[in-house]
Amino acid sequence: MLQWQSPPKLNIPSDLLDLVQGNAVLAQLLVQRGLATVDQVRGFLDADHYRPAPPDVLPDVDRAVVRLSRAINQREPIWVWGDFDADGQTSTTVLVSALRQLGGFVRYYIPNRMTESHGIKLPALERVLAQRAGLILTCDTGIAEHEAVATAQAAGADVIVTDHHDLAETLPPAQAVINPKRLPADHPLRELPGVGVAYKLMQALLAAHGQADESESLLDLVALGIVADVARQTGDTRYLLQRGLDVLQQSERLGLQVLIENANIKTKRLTEDHIGFWLAPRLNALGRLGDANQAVELLTTDNLARTRIIALQLEGLNDRRKLLVDRVVVQALSQLEDTPSLAQYNAIVLAAADWHPGVIGIAASRLVEQYGKPVILIALRPNDLGRGSARSVAGCDIHQAIKTQAHLLAGFGGHPMAAGLALAPENVIAFRRGLSEALEGCQPTSAKTIKLDLVVELPQLNFDLLTTIQRLAPFGAGNPSVRLGCRGLRLVDEAIFGKAGDHKRLTVEDEAGYRQEVIWWRGAAERSPEGRFDLALTLGPDDFRGGDAIQTELVAFREWTPTKIVRDLELIDYRTSIRDQGSGIRDQESGISDQQKPITINQLPITDLQSLISNLPSPILIWSEGVTLPDTVTVPRHKLQRAETLVIWTAPPGQDILAQAVARVRPQKVVLVAQLPPVDTLAGFIPRLMGLIKYAVAQREGEIFWEELAGALGHRVTTVQFGLDWLEAQGKLAIVAKEEEVVVVRPGRQSLLMKILV
Questions:
Q1: C-beta separation of 81 from 141 below 8 A
Q2: d(C-alpha 488, C-alpha 664), whole Å
Q3: Bridge partners, residue 552, by sequence
Q4: Residue 30 domain-assigned?
Q5: What CATH number is attached to the domain comprising 507?
């Protein structure tokens, strides 16, 4: 069953609360994210208060600056060797742009995903070396390319490696190896993606040439790569993204302007979400299905006509990418349906001959969302190695798990959350088994637990709350979106939308009748929640309404579990002075206390109640069902509302009813009397039920709400339903209509006959 982790109660330092001008919600969210000091919060919320690490703390940066400066001064041919994903494309563009700015003679090469895969393959390297390469500068690749680096060095070309992937057992024999993984685990540069590493090197190089200010113009590319690579937003990575988003909103880069225009994004409102859902997928589509070298041309050219041509190609490739991903997902699900045992392994490993290797990573991510465990999809090709893409969940280091199966693989590489591999088709079965064994101890908690940041009511989902939440942006890995929890909702409407009809719009309602629309992306084919349910969601701006309205998006839902009465609630247990006879409810059953102490109830004089409530804080609600108290205003469960004090006069029919009532009233004090209602016997129940039905027929044309009937009788709705069914079987009434909330009844034949005879 899906578990929810509610936000913990934390102590908010007073100086932190002062810093955020008394915004308790913002302060709570910050402390929950481990930001408890004023200096930490200042640097997190405002990039102007963050002190970035200098580039030269990265190992070998100084050596690389010296070698690059010599190549620039001597007009040596510098080849930038990149990678085909968006991180690799932006990394390549950062290096090419900065080196050209300094007068370098620069060319670049990005491998073809379909024919070469990741890394530096010797045939392509030999072609580059044949073109007088004096210096090869890698980005987002190279850390494990020992043979390729040695080959280039032997041919007379120096190699500088910039990469961010996990280190091999030894470093390649390059002139310089710049990788943040060489730094301590808690270093602020440790989580830089490939584009971040490339930027820090160029920042140092530009500063060495007296052009430090020019590095600012590269930050739009850095923001793209950080989001596209799902880099962990801590330390300098978050700082660079904050700065980069500001630059991106006013980027002078022609290619980005056209991409933003084609995606119908309002530049002034551009956020990390626009990168993640609109810009990065277009760039990645080029790398997955086309020639990623064109991305560097798109991001560096000043030719508007050429820019529009390439951008148009990206649009077409992106549309094709969507179709191919959907196809892979459908076929993968079909395999799992045909062979359910494949889903029982600790990682789902599937293979097919007609899958496009450029999109299987995206499809694997979709399956991870559905199954909550690592997924590896392998595209098989005739007379060749299969190419696989792996995606994982928090708690399962997929790269290390794959490493244990190196004896079955022709190659592999990646991160704890994503990896790639190559293997012979005949090794797929053995790989599946071995990988599952390697993942035996992993704990994919994200598959079972939804961590909530705030529990709110529907009316609190407003623009003020959104403004508070957005102060924590940009969001992403390491700084996830704020997850809100709303309890006790029900679905009142739903509609399918989207070009392909694959999304769903839910209209939910709380107990007070307040309604809110919730978007469920890719939820059209999923089962909608039924009955009462709890909802986890995120809150963001509605871009289709200009960003001035809110948009709520579904994260997950579960069957409603009413909140128990909290322990710090002040309870006045009036039963303790009247333990003579009778029967009542136990504390343990009520959810009020952990102590199990049977207490019996005697009849309590009305005068005692009057004297009691005279000393209680107002407003006061007296919850009584099935009994009328003279000169006292009482309410049944369906009329309960917020009040300071709740007097529970009659014993509720069960723990869930009690918990729902207290959750609705949210009192500071509870006075527990809990007398037995007088309709707990058949002799009392049936006449009372018949009286209510007669009233409904006479005054409401036979229509009455189930909850109203249950409250008037002090019983559950199911008990009332059984009672009506029994009366109908006796011919005393006829049920004309029976719906979820209301029932319509008419007098039965025996009742009409009695009227005629009388």
A1: yes
A2: 10
A3: 539
A4: no
A5: 2.40.50.460
pLDDT, residue 544, reads 64
The per-residue pLDDT for 122 is 93
Q: Which of 238, 249, 309 lies closest to 279 in space, CA to CA?
A: 249
Residues 547 and 582 in one domain: no
Domain closes at, from 506, 536, 559 = 559
Neighbours of 601 (CB within 10 A): 21
Which residue ranges of the chain lie beneath pLDDT 50?
1, 446-447, 564-567, 576-603, 751-758
Separation between Cα atoms, residue 336 and residue 318, nearest integer Å:
27
545 and 600 together in one domain: no
Q: Are residues 411 and 526 in the same domain?
A: no
Give per-residue pLDDT as tens, 151-180. 999 999 999 999 999 898 899 999 999 999
- Contact in structure between 481 and 466 (CB atoms under 8 Å): no
Tokens 């709400």 sit on residue = 705
| DSSP percent split of the chain into helix, strand, coil, nearest 5 | 45, 20, 35
pLDDT number for residue 628: 74
Residue 149: partners with Cβ closer than 8 Å, 6 or more residues away:
120, 142, 159, 161, 172, 173, 174
Structural domain boundaries, residue 534: 449-559
Single out the residue in 650, 675, 700 at which a domain terminates.
Answer: 675
Assigned domain for 331 exists: no
Tell me the C-alpha distance between 645 and 616, whole Å: 7
Q: Which structure tokens are listed for 148?
A: 């390729």
Compute the half-sphere exposure of residue 406: CA atoms within 13 Å on the CB side of its CA.
7
Residues 410, 458 within the same domain: no
Q: Does residue 290 sit in helix, strand or coil?
A: coil
**Shared domain check, 582 and 515:** no
3-state secondary structure of 195: helix
DSSP 3-state assignment of 189?
A: coil
Q: Measuring CA to CA, how many Å separate 639 from each of 521, 633, 679?
A: 36, 12, 20
**Contact partners, residue 169, CB within 8 Å, separation at least 6:** none
The beta-strand segments (E) located in 99-249 are 105-109, 135-138, 158-162, 176-178
Length of the chain: 758
Say if CB 189 and CB 164 are below 8 A apart: no
Are 290 and 231 in the same domain?
yes
CATH of the domain at 216: 3.90.1640.30
Res 118: pLDDT: 82
Tokens read off for 694 = 């007669």
Phi, psi (deg, nearest 5) at residue 729: -65, -30
Task: Compute the distance between CA of residue 652 and CA of residue 469 in angstroms, rounded to an integer.
Answer: 39
**Domain check: are 144 and 218 in the same one?**
yes
Tell me what pLDDT residue 752 has: 43
The structure tokens listed for 67 are 């070698």
Cis link prior to 474 (omega < 30° from 0)?
yes
Question: Residue holding tokens 């797929």?
Answer: 428
pLDDT at 210: 96
pLDDT of residue 583: 34
Residue 650 located in a structural domain: yes
Task: Kindly state whether residue 627 falls inside one of the protein's structural domains.
Answer: yes
Put simply, whether the predicted model's pTM sits higher than 0.85 gets the answer no
d(CA 259, CA 719): 62
Domain count of the chain? 5
> By CB neighbour count within 10 A (0-12 exposed, 13-18 middle, 19+ buried), where does 382 fall?
exposed
Encoded tokens for 42: 């200042």
- State the pLDDT at residue 306: 96
Q: What is the CATH number of the domain that holds 716?
A: 1.10.10.10
Residues 73 and 221 in one domain: yes
Domain of 349: which CATH number? 3.10.310.30
For residue 449, the model assigns a pLDDT of: 74
